[in-house]
Design a protein that fits this description.
Blueprint lengths: L17 H8 L4 H7 L6 E5 L5 H14 L8 E5 L2 H13 L6 E4 H16 L12 H10 L6 H16 L7 H7 L8 H18 L4 H14 L1 H10 L2 E4 L7 H11 L5 E5 L14 H4 L1 H4 L4 E5 L1 E2 L4 H12 L13 E2 L8 E7 H17 L7 E5 L5 H10 L4 E4 L8 H15 L7 H10 L12 H23 L5 H15 L7 E5 H4 L4 E6 L16 H15 L2 E12 L41 H21 L3 H4 L2 H10 L4 H5 L6 H15 L2
Parallel strand pairs: 1-5, 1-6, 2-3, 2-4, 4-5, 7-8, 9-14, 10-12, 10-13, 11-12, 13-14
Helix pairs in contact: 1-3, 2-3, 5-10, 6-7, 6-9, 7-20, 8-9, 10-11, 10-12, 15-23, 16-17, 18-21, 19-20, 24-26
Catalytic activity: ATP + H2O = ADP + phosphate + H(+); Couples ATP hydrolysis with the unwinding of duplex DNA by translocating in the 3'-5' direction
Protein name: DNA 3'-5' helicase
GO molecular function: helicase activity; hydrolase activity
């Protein structure tokens, strides 16, 4: 917090000894030592997975304090989580350093704004809106939008994205289109809700969490006396996970610095996986351009994973488009040799989950603690089949970063409705249609997965209930609705057992920053990883590759990657394994790079039935584009039409796995495309 008017500033050289400084550097490797001793001027530490990033930056701060280059109270270390900030403080205390401010962006901004609010805002810090949903709901109602909790969550996410990228309501439609956003409503409608939300906030005299950063930055930019006091207090800055900084956070950092260059940033360009929240890796990638005299240090010695896991991670990220050489990190495994990563193909998802559950059980029985095992997937809705398989195998588990499947609001609501339908009478032998009808009463539409993260997760959860009904009928055609409801209750009871020491189930995003002895990365099929809505944008596909890299580098010793050819037992085994596994699976070759952009459209030549389908699709596209007054390629490119004609999809699910078909186009054109393919 900024010092009070009568609080004297400490002076450099007031703490530490040269002997203490050398002791701080002892035990660091050559690159870590170089980074830790670079205590002046701009510094960029490119720290690969498992290379001792936190150890390096805490020793750098301690070294600066012990040499007198830093006064502890003048150092502000900014992290992305309170847990990371706490770990920094704990490690600094063990190195004999106290007084350093280690906080998240929001915590640091709140502390400063609370102190300066009377001067900047004319009174105390306004109340904070800790949950946007109530205000967003009112704004949506004023704009005559019909919403549910899921669409409200997606609207709130869009407003947060807009504010973190410094987009105003007027800017939002164009900015959202340029970023490839898939909002839950028309972009113009989202912009109107955003504007109403801001007006309501101002009317109530409240701030949200994005405002904390924005108003603090404004205070520093527009109030010279505030800027002088804060910049006198904080002279040295350290920013962790710099690849995940968004434009709003960067604006606040620039305001703190005030043109000074005493900043150390730490990040890994290979772990940039949050651009969907507004994070911009260009701040890290452009750091050396912004500060030409910056010291750039690479940490590439991986102390976490075996050379076998490290080798696979290097091969995976090595297939990404080339970056400038300064940002290429190639990990060097420092641990003893371990087992080779394993790859498994399965007939369907239940078979894949059962195999993973049995492998987890074998590991536990052979002495591996369950807490040292993780199953990582791309989307939260994939957890259900693994929750069930682990419960059936008697293996305890912990679900990280999300609610248990049967505790999700949409699942609980569906189970209540199914229970009511079972009690009120049902048609024998029609379990699956009945389940579909009950879910349809909640607004669920089977072949139309919606845009938006929360809405898509809700859709996937309800689709999983239908899939479970299909599975039960396949095993026993006499299964009826009461038995299905009883089966759901049994599964829910089994999954509510104590699971504190269990196998971790987590999405790949939730797994970042964590590590386990044994990791299973599952569900690796195109359309899931890379996720279907990313396929139309090369930069989004590359972020999906980095997400798999993050998952792979969570493993210390044992790594298993798997995929299944069909969603359900008995279904057509047509799902392609993830393109990112090409060149990694023994005997496979790397995927060919995308062809160069042509100045003239190449003529597509298909023969037989595929050729007939292609021509029908072109005719449909022409009439659709004409009706919408847009160029034909805006509907679908020739390459996408060719992929459709060759695949001959018969369902929305099959169509969604094809390149160039995102969620929005699937919703707009999916049924028409299937009808055209079918003649």
């Amino acid at each position: 917090m900024p010092r009070t008017a009568d609080a004297p500033l400490a002076t450099p050289g007031s703490a530490g000894t040269s002997a203490g400084a050398e002791a701080v550097l002892a035990g660091l490797d050559e690159e870590q030592r170089e980074a830790a001793s670079a205590v002046t001027g701009p510094v960029c530490i490119l720290a690969g997975a498992g290379t001792g990033k936190t150890r390096t930056i805490t020793h750098r701060i301690a070294y600066g304090v012990h040499t007198g280059a830093f006064v502890p109270e003048q150092v502000l270390a900014v992290t992305f989580t309170a847990r990371a900030a706490g770990e920094l403080r704990t490690r600094l205390a063990s190195l004999g350093v106290g007084g350093v401010q280690a906080r998240t962006f929001h915590a640091a901004a709140m502390r400063q704004l609370r102190y300066f609010a009377p001067r900047v805002l004319g009174g105390p810090l306004p109340p904070l809106i800790e949950n946007k949903l109530r205000v967003v709901a009112s704004a949506a109602t004023r704009n005559r939008l019909t919403t549910d909790r899921t669409s409200l969550r997606d609207l709130a996410s869009e407003i947060e994205w807009a504010k973190t990228t410094l987009a105003t309501p007027e800017d939002y439609p164009a900015r959202a289109a340029a970023a490839g956003r898939e909002p839950p409503f028309d972009a113009a409608a989202v912009a109107r809700v955003y504007a109403s939300y801001e007006s309501a906030k101002q009317r109530d005299g409240a701030l949200d969490f994005e405002d904390l950063l924005l108003v603090t930055a404004f205070a520093l930019e527009e109030h010279p006396d505030v800027a002088r006091q804060v910049r006198a207090q904080y002279r040295h800055f350290v920013v962790d996970e710099y690849q995940d900084v968004n434009p709003l956070q960067q604006r606040l950092l620039d305001a703190w610095l005030g043109g000074r260059a005493d900043v150390c940033v730490v990040g890994d360009p290979n772990q940039t996986i949050y651009s969907f929240t507004g994070a911009d890796p260009d701040y890290l990638l452009g750091f050396a351009d912004r500060y030409p005299d910056a010291a750039v240090v690479k940490l590439e010695r991986d102390y976490r994973s075996t050379p076998q896991v490290v080798g696979l991670a290097n091969k995976l990220i090595g297939q990404a488009p080339e970056r400038k050489s300064i940002f290429r990190l190639k990990l060097l495994g420092q641990r003893a040799e371990g087992p080779e990563p394993r790859f498994f193909e399965h007939a369907d998802e239940p078979a894949e989950a059962a195999a993973v559950a049995q492998a987890c059980r074998a590991l536990v029985e052979s002495g591996t603690p369950a807490s040292e095992i993780a199953v990582l997937f791309r989307i939260n809705a994939q957890s259900q089949v693994y929750e069930s398989a682990l419960a059936d195998a008697g293996v305890p588990y912990v679900l990280k970063g999300g609610e248990r499947f049967f505790e999700r609001p949409e699942v609980r609501e569906a189970v209540v409705l199914l229970r009511g339908a079972a009690a009120g009478g049902h048609e024998p032998g029609a379990l699956v249609p009945t389940v579909r009808d009950v879910l349809a009463s909640t607004g669920w539409v089977e072949h139309r997965p919606p845009a938006g993260g929360a809405a898509r997760d809700r859709w996937q959860s309800l689709a999983a209930l239908v899939d479970l009904a299909v599975d039960l009928v396949a095993e026993d055609p006499t299964t009826d609705l009461p038995r299905f409801v009883a089966h759901l209750a049994e599964r829910a009871d089994a999954q509510h057992a104590p699971t504190v020491q269990g196998v971790t189930l987590a999405s790949m995003h939730a797994a970042k920053g964590l590590e386990w002895d044994a990791v299973f990365v599952v569900g690796l099929v195109d359309g899931v990883l890379p996720i279907s809505q990313s396929l139309s944008r090369p930069e989004a596909v590359e972020e999906e590759r980095r997400l798999l890299y993050v998952a792979v580098t969570r493993a210390r010793e044992q790594l298993t990657l798997s995929w299944s050819l069909a969603r359900n037992p008995g279904a057509k085994r047509a799902r392609p394994r993830s393109r990112f596994l090409d060149g990694l699976v023994p005997g496979s070759t790397p995927s060919a790079p995308p062809p160069p952009r042509r100045t003239k459209r190449a003529k597509v030549v298909l023969e037989g039935e595929a050729g007939e389908i292609f021509e029908r699709l072109r005719a449909w596209r022409s009439s659709t584009a004409q009706a919408a007054s847009v160029p034909a390629y805006v509907v679908f490119t020739d390459a996408t039409l060719q992929a459709i004609a060759e695949a001959k999809p018969t369902s929305i699910r099959e169509l969604s796995g094809l390149p160039g078909i995102g969620a929005r186009k699937l919703e707009m054109y999916g049924e028409d495309v299937l009808a055209t393919v079918g003649g």
